[in-house]
């Protein structure tokens, strides 16, 4: 992952120093000597993260940050404010301007790389979500970015693993204004809780009395159920070596004692956002996989899935000499529903129709919308007679109760015609069986609709 870091500072030597450090860690570095230049670079999409000096003539760092965070094309770019040690108030101003985190001058390498890496991780998940969002919009489906953009990183579930009461009190009073905080002093119990609770972030003390905090970090990162939780270490400034080790084994970031309240809030918020974005990404993979096989309107399987499954179901039943039946269903005079009540009412009818068909079938039956108002049901281990009974049950259920349309303000009568067929010994493929079910359906339409017609058994 070669991220592009934009370094913004009016003092050339500062820029050069940071450029050298970051390049040595294989980051690509872009530089700007003032706010205007920085904004232009970000607007052209040439930066993955911004290190922004506060004190600059003309437009100061806060203003640059505010403009970045208010720009539609730049709001998602993480910003780290570089503040002076003797100006702690700048951190609060930075947070107000929308900064994601802080670094204090003189810059410490461990902190610099940890912060950059942590925010690059955040950026790479938001980028992926943005890419999916553009793809989704092209396909006309729900936009995961809209949900992601509103992700504030607040109201996270946070577990603090710390055994010093004075520290836990302070952490918890700072965090609980924005998050749900739980404290656990016992390290073994903490791992159990982390695995069972659905936490967004876990803060781990590296100074526990009877246990190595690094071991907890490592366990959290390797256990299946805690692998995606964000891990933040809490350590002493002198404990640099162990903090580095923690970052190597997968902790996401760290805080140095005594913990600055604003740093704490900023860092936890970044971790909560990253965790949630990552989850959302997983959900969107899940839903795009579902989309490939599901019909969006009715939630039934789609034709593509039916085409690929039906052949297998047919072959299996032939191989094991088991029965297999199918129904082809078509809503009667559906065009009239659309013409009279509108296309949306037609959609409502289709959804309700799908629900009723589903309610009359078993879990192992395959129900798919083949297009328009035609639904196919494949019933494994089912005789022609039993399939007829299912078809009749569906027909009755559709006819018996009117369908509500226009959001429950009206209801209309709907009927369905159904053709039924079963596998014959001589059938070479599922298509032959389907052809008979189709023919039966046409006869049902011809004979006056609202009826079930069965293709002859062999
Ligand atoms: P029959 O009893 O002979 O089946 O008559 P019908 O009107 O149901 O059949 P026809 O094939 O003439 O019309 C089907 C209509 O279904 C036409 C088409 O516009 C409509 N349709 C197809 N897909 C959808 C959909 O997703 N939503 C809605 N609302 N209508 C659809
Ligand atoms: Mg029809």
Automatic annotation (TrEMBL):
Under SMART domains, the record lists:
GGDEF (SM00267), REC (SM00448)
The reaction(s) annotated as catalysed by this protein in its Swiss-Prot or TrEMBL entry are: 2 GTP = 3',3'-c-di-GMP + 2 diphosphate
CDD domains reported in the protein's UniProt record: GGDEF, REC_D1_PleD-like
EC numbers: 2.7.7.65
Q: Which UniProt keywords apply?
A: Phosphoprotein
Domain named GGDEF is located at 322-457
Q: Into which EC class is this enzyme placed?
A: transferase
- PTM 4-aspartylphosphate: at which residues? 53
Phosphoprotein among the record's keywords?
A: yes
- The residues forming the signal peptide are none
Domain named Response regulatory: residues: 4-120, 157-272
Q: Which GO terms describe its molecular function?
A: diguanylate cyclase activity
Q: Which GO terms describe its biological process?
A: cell adhesion involved in single-species biofilm formation; negative regulation of bacterial-type flagellum-dependent cell motility; phosphorelay signal transduction system
- One GO CC term, this protein: plasma membrane
Name of one Pfam family that matches: Response_reg
- Origin superkingdom: Bacteria
PANTHER family, alphabetized: DIGUANYLATE CYCLASE DGCM-RELATED (PTHR45138:SF9), REGULATORY COMPONENTS OF SENSORY TRANSDUCTION SYSTEM (PTHR45138)
- Record's protein name: diguanylate cyclase
């Amino acid at each position: 992952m070669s991220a592009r870091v934009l370094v913004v500072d009016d003092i050339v030597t500062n820029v050069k120093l940071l450029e050298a450090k970051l390049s040595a860690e294989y980051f690509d570095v872009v530089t700007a000597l003032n706010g205007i230049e920085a904004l232009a670079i970000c607007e052209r999409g040439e930066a993955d993260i911004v290190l922004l000096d506060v004190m600059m003539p003309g437009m100061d760092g806060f203003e640059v940050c505010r403009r970045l965070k208010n720009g539609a094309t730049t709001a998602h770019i993480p910003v780290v404010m570089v503040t002076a040690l003797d100006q702690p108030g700048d951190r609060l101003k930075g947070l107000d301007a929308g900064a994601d985190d802080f670094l204090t001058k003189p810059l410490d390498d461990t902190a610099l790389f940890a912060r950059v890496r942590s925010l690059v991780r955040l950026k790479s998940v938001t980028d992926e979500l943005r890419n999916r969002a553009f793809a989704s919009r092209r396909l006309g489906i729900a936009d995961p970015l809209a949900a992601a953009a509103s992700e504030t990183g607040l109201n996270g579930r946070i577990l603090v693993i710390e055994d010093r009461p004075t520290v836990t009190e302070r952490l918890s009073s700072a965090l609980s204004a924005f998050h749900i905080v739980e404290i656990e002093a016992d390290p073994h119990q903490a791992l159990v809780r982390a695995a069972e609770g659905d936490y967004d972030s876990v803060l781990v003390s590296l100074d526990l009395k009877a246990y190595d905090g690094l071991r907890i970090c490592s366990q959290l990162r390797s256990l299946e159920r805690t692998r995606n939780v964000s891990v933040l270490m809490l350590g002493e400034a002198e404990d640099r070596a162990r903090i580095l080790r923690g970052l190597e084994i997968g902790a996401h970031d760290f805080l140095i004692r005594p913990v600055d309240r604003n740093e704490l809030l900023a860092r936890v918020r970044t971790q909560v956002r990253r965790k949630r974005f990552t989850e959302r990404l997983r959900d969107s993979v899940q839903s795009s996989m579902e989309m490939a096989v599901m019909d969006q309107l009715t939630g039934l399987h789609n034709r593509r899935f039916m085409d690929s499954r039906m052949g297998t179901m047919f072959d299996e039943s032939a191989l094991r000499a088991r029965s297999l039946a199918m129904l082809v269903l078509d809503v009667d005079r559906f065009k009239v529903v659309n013409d009279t009540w509108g296309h949306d009412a037609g959609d409502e009818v289709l959804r309700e129709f799908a629900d009723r068909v589903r309610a009359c079938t078993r879990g192992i039956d395959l129900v798919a919308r083949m297009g328009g108002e035609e639904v196919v049901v494949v019933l494994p281990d089912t005789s022609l007679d039993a399939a007829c009974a299912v078809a009749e049950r569906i027909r009755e259920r559709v006819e018996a109760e009117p369908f509500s349309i226009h959001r429950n303000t009206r209801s209309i009568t709907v009927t369905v015609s159904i053709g039924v067929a079963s596998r014959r010994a001589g059938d070479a493929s599922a298509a032959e069986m389907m052809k008979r079910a189709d023919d039966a359906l046409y006869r049902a339409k011809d004979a006056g609709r609202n009826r079930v017609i069965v293709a002859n058994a062999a």
